[in-house]
Amino acid sequence: TAPQSSARVAVNGKDLAFEAYNIEGNNYFKLRDLAMAVSGTAKQFEVAWDSGKSAINLKSKLAYTPVGGEMRQGDGAAKPYSPGTSKIYKDGNEIKPTAYLINGNNYFKLRDVASVFDFGVTWNAADLTIMVNTNASYTE
């Protein structure tokens, strides 16, 4: 099972609450939550389901269109997980970020998403905060 992440998250200096999970030391988030959190910035992206391809389509530089259910809070309980199986395309090209299926939703490794959309992610150990900065580029 994956425990719900206890880390705080700040996006461009603003604290946001996510339902995220920690698997093997990495934090996993729903794409729609991340897309909503960075919408309106230079690193915004749209998330759409392509039923014909049974795939997730990500489109750079487009504002996110909410579908409902984004940014919902979890119950704090650990959840079973399994590898994600959906194909994922970014701007028409297949990508392969690390993903897991948790409670009926796909969760993606934050650093993989940051790498794909080139936004900064840092860890502040002093206050246990993940900092997302859409004004910075991704670095390992």
Explain what this protein looks like in three dimensions.
With 140 residues, the protein is mainly beta. It is built from two helices and 13 strands, in the order ββββαβββββββαββ. The strands form three sheets. Strands 3-4-11-10-7 form a five-stranded antiparallel β-sheet. Strands 2-1-13-12 form a four-stranded mixed β-sheet, covered by helices on one side. The chain has a four-stranded mixed β-sheet with strand order 5-6-8-9, with helices on one face. It is globular. The mean pLDDT is 96.
Topology:
Layout: E1 8-11, E2 14-16, E3 21-23, E4 26-30, H1 31-38, E5 45-50, E6 55-60, E7 81-83, E8 87-90, E9 93-95, E10 99-102, E11 105-109, H2 110-117, E12 120-124, E13 129-133
Parallel strand pairs: 1-13, 6-8
Antiparallel strand pairs: 1-2, 3-4, 4-11, 5-6, 7-10, 8-9, 10-11, 12-13
